[in-house]
Design brief:
The protein has a single domain, classed as Exonuclease VII, small subunit (Helix Hairpins, Orthogonal Bundle). The N and C termini lie far apart (48 Å). 4% of the residues are buried. The protein is elongated. It is mainly alpha-helical and 77 residues long.
Length: 77
Amino acid sequence: MATASKHSAVPTSYEAALQELEQLVARLESGDMPLEHLLTQYQRGAELLKFCRDRLESVENQVKLLDMGTLKTWTPE
């Protein structure tokens, strides 16, 4: 049961969520996962995807605010 609570925890960062999501997708695509775990793992993937999308939207909103409402293309120096 400790594994289930670990995977239901909120990710510590966007990068951690993305890494977990990539690993989860690889396991789902491998076809090696028992049927009874597929639904819970799919649900975890949906949670991770929502977390990542929310984080990206938050950063986009912060950029818009910093640029006074105008989203500008970021170019590395």
